[in-house]
Backbone:
């Protein structure tokens, strides 16, 4: 049942036009996630924490295993290093209903400028006190990424 539901959702998403989020509402939802990614690239834990609910969830799908953490725990692992890191998202699909939103976007992750893995980010956000914050992030990962 779950597989059929997931397949149906994938078909609906595939049928949706690929476009950059352009509405002001879409941009407001995307802003905290982009700030989170920018903070990650700068190893700036405070900037990342400003965009999330600390007890929110993270689910990273790696080689058929799910690695779970809180957003706060994930951020704790982002410590300054000698390597340059960057995650870029592409063609984000944003859906909003009142105080709940999702972002579905392809991404690639770069280490010292080279793409080392890619996949899809799924981010859900909630609006608290008039501000969008990240309540959870899930992503999958593969290494057969197109060259950009």
Residues:
């Amino acid at each position: 049942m779950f597989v059929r539901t997931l397949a149906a959702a994938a078909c609906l998403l595939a049928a949706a036009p690929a476009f950059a989020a352009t509405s002001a509402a879409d941009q407001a939802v995307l802003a905290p996630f982009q700030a989170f990614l920018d903070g990650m690239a700068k190893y700036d834990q405070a900037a990342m924490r400003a965009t999330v609910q600390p007890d929110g969830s993270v689910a990273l799908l790696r080689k058929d295993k799910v690695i779970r953490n809180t957003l706060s725990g994930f951020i704790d692992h982002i410590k300054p290093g000698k390597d340059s890191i960057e995650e870029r998202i592409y063609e984000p699909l944003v859906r909003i209903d009142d105080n709940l939103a999702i972002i579905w976007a392809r991404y690639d992750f770069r280490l010292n400028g080279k793409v080392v893995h890619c996949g899809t980010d799924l981010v859900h956000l909630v609006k608290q006190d008039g501000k969008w914050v990240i309540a959870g992030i899930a992503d999958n990962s593969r290494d057969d990424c197109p060259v950009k």
Notes: The radius of gyration is 15 Å. The longest helix spans residues 24-41.
